[in-house]
Amino acid sequence: MTRAGYTLLPREFYEERKPTALPDPYLVAISPYAAELVDVDPGAAADDPEFLAVAAGNALPEGAQPFATIYAGHQFGAWVPQLGDGRAITLGEKCGYEWQLKGAGLTAFSRWADGRAVLRSTIREFLCSEAMDALGIPTTRALCVVGSDEPVYRERAETAAVLTRLARSHVRFGTFEVFHYRGRADLVKRLADYLIERYYPELRESDSAQPYLALLREIVARTARLMAKWQAVGFAHGVMNTDNMSVLGLSIDYGPFGFLDTYKPGFICNHTDEMGRYAFDRQPTIALWNCYALAEAMSSLLELDPAKAILAGFEPIFREAYLGELRSKLGLRTARDEDDLLLGDLLEAMDLEDADYSRTWRSLSTVTQTEDDEFSGWFTDRERIAAWLSRYRARLAHEAGIDAERRARMNSVNPKYVLRNYLAQTAIEKAERKDFSEVRRLLAVLRRPFDEQPENIAYAEPPPEWGRRLVVSCSS
Q1: Catalytic residues
Q2: 73 has which bridge partners?
């Protein structure tokens, strides 16, 4: 492990902080898929007490210089002047990835918190990080979960856990905000220069006259495309505060997230979000709001009119990317003007019928010019869906493709397996009884979301009645 590049920034950006030892740690799960990124042998690591000690925060690997970072943010639209890594400590870098322990104890930025994470939330982030990557969605990664019987108090007494999280960078929109609102334009510039030099060197080469506008343009575009992927797969984040927005366009900080079961555009996955600010269908709008907040935080580096033009570009970038994602889900390879209406009418029908979002899209691949093996079964208004299918078949006829080839394409973008909340809850309840087999099995299923996996077909089922009543909050 080497010292993280972030610590080359001035000390105002971070504090040196060692993790707090976790008593009697045990390994819950390790992701072999994330392990490849940092040259870790997952089989050997699972039996290695030295690896366990590092993952628990009980020992530091050679070369580590641990630290916690400061940032601020708009939380549910309200300005909070100082936040920071209140329970996350970055040890250093390995293979170009920051190696961070989430739940590693108190830092200077913990405020009133205890610096710990609980097993429940840690398992959720572990599974979702790795599931999102398998779905092709940019995300932080999760190497492993380590648990302990140390008590932690949230809504109830729970047990502690530490997640080892990996990312090229964990810098957030809120990192710019904290220095902007403190009147430290010099530090805003230092941060922008660091990001360009380390992660966006091509921006200085391609636009040397205005590298900071180029940086804003790239972050806005990545954010817009990320939202398109979230919306297409039916993912709701739940807490899209500016401190939870990555400058690399990654999905970050998984808390009260939820994948759609039935298609409801106004789905609110976070029961703390009483006003529905972060409802599923508002995510692109909130992402743009956050980009405006970022532009304000970078305003000392930007010219006003070009910055406005960049922000105005968010919606067309999102729209093009989103329509592209949905056309792929329809099995279409070309664009036609009527596609907007065709897609809109399908989503409206799914909403009216409470159709299962993932399974309805998946079953669409069974439609041919003469057959409909599964798709229509999700709808009771047969006349309505028959009319839609007639238009869809006419649209397919324009492309004159082979049904089997189209079905393969559709099944490569319409997942059969997503991390439904009831699946995560089942794994959590077993893990709380020290049975970690379901966490590990569920991870393996979610890493192959587009495969049929007939032996795991139960994981594709809609939630049972108890699963529909599950609620998650910011403590999740």
Answers
A1: 243
A2: 80
**Separation of alpha carbons 51 and 61, rounded Å:** 9
Q: What pLDDT is recorded for position 207?
A: 65
Which is it for the CA torsion 322, 323, 328, 329, positive or negative?
A: positive
Residue 43: predicted pLDDT:
97
Q: What is the pLDDT of residue 132?
A: 98
Spell out the SS3 assignment of the chain.
CECCHHHHCCHHHEEECCCCCCCCCEEEEECHHHHHHHCCCHHHHHCCHHHHHHHHCCCCCCCCCCEEECCCEEECCEEECCCCCCCEEEEEEECCEEEEEECCCCCCCCCCCCCCEEHHHHHHHHHHHHHHHHCCCCECEEEEEEEEEEEEECCCEEEEEEEEEEECCCCEHHHHHHHHCCCCHHHHHHHHHHHHHHHCHHHHHHCCCCHHHHHHHHHHHHHHHHHHHHHHHCEECCCCCHHHCECCCCECCCCCCEECCECCCCCCCECCCCCCCCCHHHHHHHHHHHHHHHHHHCHHHCCHHHHHHHHHCHHHHHHHHHHHHHHHHHCCCCCCCCHHHHHHHHHHHHHHHCCEHHHHHHHHHHECCCCECCHHHHCCCHHHHHHHHHHHHHHHHHHCCCHHHHHHHHHCCCCCCCCCHHHHHHHHHHHCCCCCHHHHHHHHHHCCCCCCCHHHHHHHCCCCHHHHCCCECCCC
Q: Which residues of the chain have pLDDT under 50?
A: none
**Region of residue 276 (left: phi > 0; alpha: psi -120 to 50; beta: else):** left
Q: Give the Cα separation of 268 and 240 in Å (integer).
A: 12
pLDDT in tens, 298-351: 999 999 999 999 999 999 999 999 999 999 999 999 999 999 999 999 999 999
The residue extents of the domains of the chain are: 1-330+415-476, 331-411
